[in-house]
Amino acid sequence: MEDAFHFTGEYPSWYPQDMKMPQPNSGRIMVTDFPKGVGEILEPALLRSIHPRFVKNTKRNSQGHLVKLIGHNGSVIDIVTHEMETQSLEGWQGDWLHCDEPAPRAKWVACLRGLIRRGGRWWLTCTPLTEPWIYDEIYTKGEIFVVNIDIRDNPHLSESEIKTFEGYLNEDEKEARLHGKFLHLSGLVYPEFKADIHIKDSLPEDFDSWTKYQIIDPHTRKPFAIAYGAVDPMGRKWIYDEWPFDFFHQKKEVHSPLKITQISSMKWKKEQTFAVVLWTAVFVNNLWGLVGTAYLRFSMTWDMSLSRVISPLR
To answer: What is the DSSP string of 98-139?
Structure first.
């Protein structure tokens, strides 16, 4: 409805005066795709909300889908989708942007760029099933106004209809589809993880004295994955680096026998305590077995250049 208000210049009495758009104005609506997002959802909604007397002309693409509305007052609505190349979304300038359903970040940024010159406004309406970046970069930012709507807030749905739909959902889906909660936070081991709290730019000064761990996840057909962790004097667990690096991942095949005992990027330093969880994988005649897990304690540690540090999950 708000799209129609701005396009026509006709606002309800309750609409804030300082939120009204200048006339004429240029807006953009971004939806998922043309067949469903535009053809089945957006175009019928616009036709219900905008009286034909306000529309001077329309434009459609080669498939017949609506891509532009031009009003008699000079206002324009430009319609784009997630299917379009990001580059094709650049260069637009407008007064407002409406993203219906979670948008890929790069496409959202390309459209957002078009609002800068006119100091435009944007809003996002969605069921948060995808694009978890929206939670981190939009939803949790205090300066952005957020409204959370439960499915039972919709006056056009009956309780019996909602109950029927609810019966087909698992618990994680219910949080997103019924209550508007972000799906990617449901079922996580650490749903309370927040980048602004748990990711640090540097390590504490006493890091060299901590016990370090190396955890290796072996695989027969894919490159190994390795994580590096440490435990501070308070017993909190830190993850401070990960591997692979290009040397190993550029290898398309792993020949037998292979024994992973150290990583070439490490620089060893004596007289420190280093604890390592070591998985040794042996490949013989295309068959493999985990020989075992050895917990070893050495009088050494390593120095590595660190670009990203993840602090403990409290």
So the answer is: EEESPPPHHHHHHHHGGGTTTT-EEEEE---SS-THHIIIII
Same structural domain, 235 and 179:
no
Q: What angle is formed at CA 233 by the lines to CA 228 and CA 238, rounded to 5 degrees?
A: 25
How many whole angstroms separate alpha carbon 51 and alpha carbon 71? 11
Q: Three-class SS of residue 224?
A: coil
Q: Let me know: does 34 contact 63? Beta carbons within 8 Å.
A: yes
Q: Which of 86, 82, 111 is nearest to 97 (CA)?
A: 111
CATH number of 147's domain: 3.40.50.300
Domain co-membership, 178 together with 301? no
Tens-digit pLDDT profile for the chain (314 aa)? Answer: 899 999 999 999 999 999 999 999 999 999 999 999 999 999 999 999 999 999 999 999 999 999 999 999 999 999 999 999 999 999 999 999 999 999 999 999 999 999 999 999 999 999 888 888 888 888 887 788 888 899 999 999 999 999 999 999 988 788 889 988 887 665 556 656 666 677 888 888 899 999 998 888 887 777 778 888 889 898 888 888 887 754 444 443 333 333 333 333 333 333 333 344 443 443 433 344 443 333 333 333 333 333 344 444 43
**Would the pTM count as exceeding 0.85?**
no
In a domain, 301, yes or no: yes
275 and 137 in a common domain = no
Residue 135, in any domain of the structure: yes
Q: Give 109's contacts (C-beta < 8 A, 6+ positions apart).
A: none
